[in-house]
Write a structure and sequence with these properties.
335 residues; mainly alpha; Rossmann fold; Tyrosyl-Transfer RNA Synthetase; 3-stranded parallel beta sheet; 13 helices; 53% helix; binds adenosine-5'-triphosphate; binds magnesium ion
Length: 335
């Protein structure tokens, strides 16, 4: 039986990348009837400094974004990580399964410490992939829908599962598969076509936020870095034009079509024509979501109740799995 797990960090406002690469696809999976567990990974967020009041707000706002994007908290399990201690418990065990050499190969740690003193980053930021493996395997999830940037971490999760099974001579954890599909598996920064769009990028101009209004979206796209060439006839014509390719990809993802179809419509036209069309399209997709988020955020008591209920349901799945893990590794349990 298939079971999906995925998570998003409450580390800031959500971006168009999070929507196209994660939220929208999570809702599709739920609607296909696959058992789905979606988490607000607040324990991952604190691997870098989070102001407590902002963290609390971002957790509730992310819950609202999940629901506004189509996650039904009755159909899917929707909760925040710190309410289910199985994540922290299994995370520690996986810290003892994963090898330092494996962690040293993780590119996200390198990206997140680039230009900074890595020695001054938290131990949690380094160990993050082991906690992510615990998030997934605490539910024995089989499929993990993520953006392209998380592929390496899901592969590490498989390595951890395999080593655990091998070391203890059991066939206990499944090998979860990353599910990376669609036109927008890696939405790039509007300021630099070689960098991923991220909610924690210090430059707000680098991203479109779910909560940006129509004028802000139009302005950010108008200022987005592009080249002076018109759009080409074929996808190959975008090969060495990272920024142009990114905007065409976004257009294709927002219309559920392909890069070829978008070029079929816009080939020969310049960005002066294309950018306002893209802005109009982005606003038409995002504004109903941000309106619904605003409405949901008026009742944070209800949001907190949804999270508590989700945590109870998550706990009911994870606890028996954790009990088995403790038995397998030889921990004497309370009678
Ligand atoms: P942070 O900068 O704090 O790491 P983030 O924007 O990378 O934030 P995450 O919470 O780390 O967001 O990731 C949540 C999900 O969104 C993951 O599945 C991730 O792969 C996906 N995602 C993040 N950025 C993009 C992007 N630019 N394009 C497509 N998917 C993305
Ligand atoms: Mg990230």
């Amino acid at each position: 039986p298939n079971r999906i797990f995925s998570g998003i960090q409450p580390s800031g406002g959500l971006t168009l990348g999070n929507y196209l690469g994660a939220l929208r696809r999570f809702a599709q999976k739920q609607d296909e009837g696959i058992e789905s567990i979606y988490c607000i990974v607040d324990m991952h967020a604190i691997t870098v400094w989070q102001d407590p009041a902002k963290l609390r707000h971002a957790t509730r706002e992310l819950t609202a974004a999940y629901i506004a994007s189509g996650i039904d908290p009755e159909k899917s399990v929707l909760f925040n990580q710190s309410q289910v201690s199985a994540h922290a418990e299994l995370g520690w065990i996986f810290n003892c399964v994963a090898r330092l050499g494996w962690m040293n190969r993780m590119t996200q740690f390198k990206d997140k410490t680039a230009g900074k003193n890595a020695e001054a980053s938290s131990l949690g930021l380094y160990a993050y992939p082991a906690l992510m493996a615990a998030d997934i395997l605490a539910y024995k999830a089989t499929h993990v829908p993520v953006g392209d940037d998380q592929k390496q971490h899901v592969e590490l999760t498989r390595d951890i599962a395999a080593k655990f099974n091998h070391d203890f001579g059991v066939n206990f954890f499944p090998m979860p598969e990353p599910v990376i599909e669609g036109a927008a598996t890696r939405v790039m920064s509007l300021r630099d076509g070689t960098k991923k769009m991220s909610k924690s990028d210090p430059s707000d101009a680098s991203r479109i936020n779910l909560t940006d209004d129509a004028d802000t979206i139009a302005k950010k796209l108008r200022k987005a870095v592009t080249d002076p060439e018109p759009l080409p006839e074929t996808a190959e014509g975008l090969a060495s034009r990272a920024e142009a390719r990114n905007l065409v990809n976004i257009y294709a993802a927002l219309t559920n079509s392909s890069v070829e179809a978008v070029l079929g419509e816009f080939a020969g036209q310049g960005f002066g024509t294309f950018k306002p069309k893209l802005a109009e399209l982005a606003v038409s997709v995002l504004s109903p979501i941000s309106t619904e988020m605003t409405r949901l955020m008026q009742d944070t008591g209800e949001i907190d109740r949804i999270l508590s209920r989700g945590a109870e349901r998550a706990e009911a799945i994870a606890r028996p799995i954790l009990d088995d893990v403790y038995d397998i590794i030889g921990m004497v349990r309370r009678k």
